[in-house]
Amino acid sequence: MVRSFFLYSCLAVVILLCGLVQSAFAVDIYAVRVGAHPDKTRIVIELSGTPSCKITHAQNPPRIILDVKNATWQGQAIDLPRKSGIIANIRQQSSETSHRIILQTKQAAAVSKQFYLPANGGANSRYVIDLVSKESKASSAATEEVTPPSRPQKRKYVVVIDPGHGGKDPGAIGKAGTYEKDITLRVGLELRDALVRTGRYEVHLTRSTDVFIPLRDRTRFAHKKNAALFISLHADSAPSQMADGLSVYTLSETASDKEAALLAAKENKADLISGINFQGENKEVSSILIDLVQRETMNMSARFATELVRELSQRVVVREKTHRFAGFMVLKAPDTPAALLEMGYISNPREEYQLRQSQYRARIVAGIVAATNSFFNANTVR
To answer: How far apart are CA 142 and CA 262, in angstroms?
Structure first.
């Protein structure tokens, strides 16, 4: 999702009614997304910085009006998904002092919760609003406002590269005796150097030598480094030597739900998600925060996977349905966007030979670098 967008404790809390405060900072709005859930409709506004947003309830027709002060719309036209929950229509109006988002609802609605998530290296700031039917929860006031504190912006994006296997774990072994652990380490080192040369990234490897690293320690390492992106490198194998092609994996919905439930049940959440202070929060609030972070992390991971598929398919052979989903352990960090790259089938003699060639690996590295640049260009805080 997502790592360092929680740098200060208690930033991501459920905000109730706040006093009217005029924001001194101009912000850009990049997107408005709508998500329908069984018990609520979630509105996510992506922005460049800390908003001052006034919410007004109106009737005939029922609607909720969001005035984001000192804001400018920079995004594309808003398309409602087929299942848009309680939202019937969205309109926008701009003025010299604010940008207005008008949420026309199918019935009288109320704001049940609000969140503010500061930006991390790979995502914009997010202002999140949960709407429910007014029948299920009466609005406590006609006007609400939130003005969260600002945070310093990171100079470089932190990327953690995870060369799979190592040490006593060789991974897959090719027909010519090539160890997967050796290929992943070579690509990891080459990718690190290529990313560093761009001047945009602070890059760390989970291993830079032939050592064994437990899976959980790999994700903990990324967490400690405050990673904005985690890339795990592998080389696939199959019973058939004809199997070929590169593939990209991100966390599956089922694996995410199970992991989120386990995380929410933990008694000690102090080091679970960077910057969230769970002390004093009840189980419902903790569960909401973890779920929000986990799902946003999955969205960010999918965006990166899309960029990887687009760039790598222009350079090497990829599998049909290149982007796939699985419950790999290294993808389960709740607040780090992550993708696992199977760079080809080492069990295929042709691809085993290619992965041993520096020119071929350079094509893979170039694709990953281009995808990483595109990912952060699209999601960076401006």
So the answer is: 38
